[in-house]
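Q: Hi! Curious about what Arsenate reductase, glutaredoxin family looks like structurally. Here's the sequence.
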Amino acid sequence: MNIQIFGTKKCNDTKKAERFFKERGIKYQFIDMKEKGMSKGELTSVASSNGGIMNMIDPDAKDKDAVALLQYIADEDKLEKLLENQQIIKTPVVRNGKQSTLGYQPDVWKKWE
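A: Let's find out. The predicted structure is below.
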């Protein structure tokens, strides 16, 4: 398994995801989205395995303007806007190769083992 956890240090769900993998002795790489976001390729891969870009957006994100903007711009522009505004992505984003999840989903991660 090659686990990557994208999240922020303040996010409780990200902390719970880290604890989940630590408790099972599974090595993972933590990427702080405040310091270094996802690449275009990573974002595209996560979006395709989770039903599209709009499913990646956290409706409760602090930046309400960015959330609203993504709902109204053309589909071909959404990826670029999300790359610029990664603070509105649901966290944690947990990747295992081509598989990925949004939010805290231990039931899915157990199936990866």
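A: A fun detail: Residues 12-23 form the longest helix (12 residues).
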